[in-house]
Specification:
heterodimer, A: 286 residues, mainly alpha, ABC transporter involved in vitamin B12 uptake, BtuC, two-stranded antiparallel ribbon, 10 helices, 76% helix, 3% strand, globular, B: 324 residues, two-stranded antiparallel sheet, 2% strand
C-alpha cells in the first residue's frame, strides 16, 4: 500500500513535467499546424541554462524565471526568422527545419556544456521531505506537481476567461478566419511559439534537480510527449492533461511491475488508441 | 534505354576507380555506394511517395543488426544468406510498421515514425543479450564461395566490387521501378489521390507496398553497412542515422532520382573532411542541413539542373548589352 502510494505520487510528478512539455507542443500544433521536433530541446536548454544560472547566482527562483524568459526569446527568434521563411515551401519543410534545429541545438549543448551528466543541486526547504499520509515524500516532487497544476490552471484561466484566450482558441480552430477579422495572426503565432518554448524551458528548469541533466534528456521526454499528444489528440489541451496523467502513471507503475517492458506499455497504449481512434481520445476528426 | 546509355560512362568510371586511386578512396567510395542506396530508398518514400518519415533508420538498423546477429550466431553462414536475412527482416519490419501507422498522414505520420524509431532504438539498447547494447557487435565478413573460385571479401577492392555489383544493381532496379506501372501509380497518387481512388486504384495498398519496399532497400543498405564496418552499434538505428539520410537526400535534392546518389557522395566526402578539421563536425552538418532547407530547398541536383538556364540567361543579357 505504502509503495503503491509512493509510485502513484511519482507518476503524478512525471505527469506534471509531461503536461508542461506537451501542452506547448499541442497548442503550437493546433494553431500553426507545425509539429515542433525541436520542442524537447527547449526543455533540455531550460535545464542547462538553469544549471548555469544556479552556478552563478545560486538562486533557484531566479533561474526559474530567467531561463523560460530567455527561451521565450529563442522561440520567438526561431519562429520569426527561420520557420516563417520556409512556411511558403510547405509542411514538409517546416517539419524538416524543426528536426534540423533539434539536431543543431543538441550538438550545441554538447559543445557548450559537454556530454557528462550534470547534477543540479537543490537547497533549502525544497530539499527536505514531508510526512504525507504515512509516507515520507520529498518536497521537491510535490513542488514539481503543484507548479504544473498551477501553470495548467493559469493557462486555462487565460484561454477560457480572457480576450487573448478567445483569439488563441479561435486561431486553433481557423487561423484564416481570425486573420480576416483583423487580428495580427503572424505575431500571434510568434508569441504562441515563444510561449510554448518558455513552458518547455520551465519544465526543463524544474526537471533539472529531479532527473539528471544530460544531452539525451530531450529525446527521453520527446517520445513520451509525442505519445501524450497522440493519445490525447493533436491540438487538444484537455487531452494533454488527461493523457499526461495516464502516461505518467503508466511509466511509474510500469517501472515497478514490469521493469523490462515499461516502455512497451506506452507504445501498446499508443497502438491501441491509434487502431481504435486514430485522431486521439479528445482530438477532432480531421 | 537512352538514359541508360548516358549513365554508362559513370558506371565505367566507378569500375575503373579502384585502379586509379588508393585504398583509402576505394573504402570511402564503398561507403558512398552503400549510403547512396539508403538515400535512394528514402527519396522513393519522400520524393516520390510524399511520405515524410523521421524513422528510416529503424529499417537500416534492423538490416544491420539482423546481418550482424545471424553472422554472430550461425557459424559458417554465407555472404548472401546473411544479406538476404537482413533485407528480409527489414522488409517485414516495414510491412508491420507501415500497417500500423500508414493510416495517419502528414505531421502525425512523421511523429509516429520517430516514435517507432525510438522504440527500436530502445530495444537495441535494452535487449543486450542480442545486441550487446552500447558495446556493439563485431562482424566477420564471410568469404563468397562460388565453388570454382572464392572471393576474399576482406580485401578492400574486392569488397568494393561486390558492393558495387549488388547495391548498384539494386539502385538500377529501383530506378527501373519508378518507370513501371507501379512506380507511376505512386507518382500519380501524390499528384491527385482522390482521382486515383476514383479510377479504382487502392491507394492504401500502394502506399503500404512503397513503405515496405523502401524499408527493404534501407535494410539492404544496413546489411552492407554492417559488413563494411565489420561492426554494428546502436548508432546504426539512432536518430542520428535518420538525420544522415535526411542530409544525404536534401543535399542531393529530393524529386530527382540521381539526387541522393550525388548527395551520398557529397555527404561522405564532406563528413570526412569536416571530421579531420574539427571535432564538432556534427554541428556543422546540422547547420548545413538547415541552410539547405532554408536557401536551397531543391538540393544540388536542382542547382545543376538550373545551371544551363542561368548560363543561357546570362548570355542573353550579355548579348543584349553588346547589341545596344
Amino acid at each position: 500500500m505504502k509503495w503503491t502510494l509512493i509510485f502513484f505520487m511519482h507518476g503524478l510528478t512525471y505527469a506534471g513535467l509531461l503536461f508542461l512539455v506537451s501542452s506547448g507542443l499541442t497548442l503550437v500544433f493546433g494553431m500553426m499546424n507545425v509539429l515542433n521536433f525541436a520542442h524537447a530541446t527547449f526543455y533540455m536548454l531550460g535545464a542547462y541554462l538553469s544549471w548555469t544560472f544556479l552556478r552563478t547566482t545560486d538562486n533557484f527562483l531566479f533561474s526559474l524565471l530567467a531561463a523560460p524568459t530567455l527561451l521565450f526569446f529563442i522561440g520567438v527568434f526561431v519562429e520569426r526568422f527561420l520557420l516563417r521563411r520556409v512556411h511558403v515551401l510547405g509542411h514538409v519543410y517546416e517539419l524538416l527545419l524543426t528536426f534540423g534545429l533539434a539536431y543543431v541545438f543538441t550538438e550545441l549543448v554538447k559543445w557548450i556544456w559537454g556530454t557528462n551528466p550534470l547534477a543540479v543541486p537543490i537547497t533549502g526547504f525544497l530539499a527536505q521531505s514531508v510526512n504525507l499520509f504515512g509516507i515520507t515524500y520529498p518536497v521537491y516532487r510535490l513542488f514539481v506537481f503543484f507548479s504544473a497544476v498551477l501553470v495548467g490552471l493559469l493557462m486555462a484561466l487565460v484561454l477560457y476567461k480572457t480576450r487573448v484566450g478567445i483569439i488563441i482558441r479561435g486561431a486553433v480552430d481557423d487561423s484564416d478566419m481570425v486573420g480576416a477579422l483583423g487580428i495580427n495572426v503572424p505575431s500571434l503565432f510568434m508569441a504562441t511559439f515563444g510561449f510554448g518554448a518558455a513552458l518547455s524551458g520551465f519544465a526543463g528548469v524544474i526537471a533539472g534537480p529531479l532527473l539528471t541533466t544530460f544531452p539525451g534528456m530531450g529525446d527521453a521526454i520527446l517520445v513520451d510527449a509525442f505519445v501524450v499528444i497522440v493519445v490525447g489528440g493533436l491540438g487538444s489541451l484537455g487531452g494533454a492533461v488527461f493523457a499526461s496523467l495516464i502516461i505518467g502513471e503508466l511509466q511509474s507503475f510500469g517501472v515497478l511491475l514490469f521493469p523490462k517492458f515499461s516502455l512497451a506499455l506506452i507504445y501498446l497504449l499508443m497502438a491501441v488508441v491509434l487502431v481504435v481512434k486514430p485522431s486521439g481520445l479528445f482530438g477532432r476528426q480531421p | 534505354m537512352n538514359s541508360l546509355v548516358r549513365k554508362a560512362p559513370f558506371l565505367i568510371l566507378l569500375v575503373l576507380f579502384p585502379f586509379v586511386t588508393g585504398k583509402y578512396h576505394v573504402s570511402l567510395l564503398t561507403e558512398v555506394v552503400i549510403f547512396a542506396l539508403f538515400g535512394v530508398s528514402y527519396n522513393l518514400l519522400l520524393g516520390y511517395g510524399n511520405l515524410l518519415s523521421f524513422g528510416h533508420a529503424m529499417f537500416f538498423g534492423l538490416g544491420a543488426y539482423t546481418t550482424a546477429v545471424v553472422l554472430h550466431h550461425i557459424p559458417g553462414l554465407g555472404f548472401f544468406p546473411a544479406i538476404l536475412l537482413g533485407t528480409g527482416c527489414a522488409t517485414l519490419g516495414g510491412l508491420l510498421v507501415g500497417f500500423l501507422i500508414l493510416r495517419q498522414k502528414g505531421a502525425s505520420f512523421a511523429l509516429l515514425t520517430l516514435a517507432f524509431n525510438a522504440l527500436f532504438y530502445a530495444m537495441a539498447t535494452k535487449f543486450t543479450f542480442i545486441t550487446h547494447g552500447d558495446d556493439g557487435l563485431s562482424v566477420i565478413r564471410p568469404k563468397i564461395d562460388f565453388g570454382i573460385f572464392t572471393l576474399n571479401t576482406s580485401d578492400v577492392v574486392v569488397f568494393y566490387f561486390v558492393t558495387l555489383a549488388i547495391v548498384g544493381a539494386v539502385i538500377l532496379l529501383s530506378w527501373y521501378f519508378t518507370g513501371t506501372a507501379m512506380g507511376k501509380t505512386i507518382t500519380l497518387m501524390c499528384e491527385n489521390e482522390e482521382r486515383m481512388k476514383f479510377l479504382g486504384y487502392s491507394t492504401n495498398t500502394t502506399r503500404l507496398t512503397l513503405f515496405t519496399l523502401t524499408g527493404g532497400l534501407a535494410g539492404l543498405a544496413g546489411s552492407f553497412y554492417a559488413l563494411f564496418f565489420c561492426f554494428v552499434s546502436v548508432d546504426a538505428i539512432s536518430i542520428a542515422m535518420t538525420t544522415t539520410v535526411l542530409l544525404i537526400t536534401f543535399v542531393g535534392g529530393i524529386g530527382s532520382f540521381a539526387g541522393p546518389i550525388l548527395g551520398a557522395f557529397v555527404y561522405i566526402y564532406l563528413q570526412n573532411f569536416l571530421s579531420d578539421v574539427t571535432d564538432r563536425w556534427q554541428l556543422f552538418m546540422g547547420l548545413i542541413f538547415i541552410a539547405m532547407v532554408l536557401f536551397v530547398p531543391g538540393g544540388i541536383s536542382k542547382l545543376l539542373q538550373d545551371m544551363p538556364a542561368w548560363w543561357r540567361a546570362g548570355h542573353q543579357i550579355n548579348a543584349d548589352k553588346t547589341g545596344e
